[in-house]
Amino acid sequence: MKKIVLFLILLTNFLFGNSLAEIQKSGVIRVGVLGDEPPFSSFENGALVGFDIDFAKRITKDIVGENGKIKFIEVTAHNRIEALQKNQVDMVIAEFIVDPEREKVVDFSMPYFAVNTAVLTKVADHYDNISQLRDKNILVEGDTEAEKDLKKMGFKTTSCNDMFHCYSELKAGRGDAFAGANLIVLAYPIVDKKLEVNISSVGTSSYYAIGVQKNNKELLEAINKELITLSKEGFFKKAFEDTLNPFYKGTADKKYFLLDDIYRIFG
């Protein structure tokens, strides 16, 4: 009896994801995105805009069809896995970095962006080498590659609830630096001239990918096929030139966005 009760409890916390056939039949795909992470996603006049949004719309058009509808569901770095497991979303496009622990509970598509950990500091502090922060307090969002990289290297870190909290703590002087994915922290000096990113690559490269519920194989195969198609069409190059590079004002290296060399192996 106890085993049956336990099974039912587990079942209520884990629902099977919608299959590709079910999604295509309904004509609706649910996509988890971050609410305010420009240039990837942000609200303008009450509507979501940005690379992730355009990316999701194109995938929807090709997988669900011209008349397919997309439902955006706001997620956070802390609940996006849960949203997949509880079948609240069909896929997550939210700066989702592939790592071995996450791969145990989520299936990831082929990567579409490469990222490194970068460090945001105050211009007045003149930091330009990670060694200068050896005995300093580095702010990081919890359970991120930045936190893992710096802890492995023996640096002191303080965890924040989210990126904006880290930024606020740095501005308030309660941290000496803020480390995160370079494609995220590079955005801050654009709007705050008192900050800079002189330390742009710490640790090893990581990769953004689309997450789907574990074992949703047909949907994952459809997404991977779509990524190959988009790369061949130059979708990512166009997005870099039209949306991303203008936002970063030339400070982001193209190599962190474009993985077309990887996709060439598929012909």
From TrEMBL:
Q: Which family does it belong to?
A: Belongs to the bacterial solute-binding protein 3 family.
Among the record's GO biological process terms, what is one?
amino acid transport
What are the record's GO terms for cellular component? extracellular region; outer membrane-bounded periplasmic space
Q: Which InterPro entries does the record match to this protein?
A: Bact_solute-bind_prot3, Solute-binding_3/MltF_N
According to UniProt, the name of this protein is Transporter substrate-binding domain-containing protein
- The organism's superkingdom is given as Bacteria
Location of the Solute-binding protein family 3/N-terminal domain: 28-246
Residue span of the signal peptide, if any? 1-21
What keyword terms does UniProt attach to this protein? Signal, Transport
- Return the Pfam families for the record: SBP_bac_3
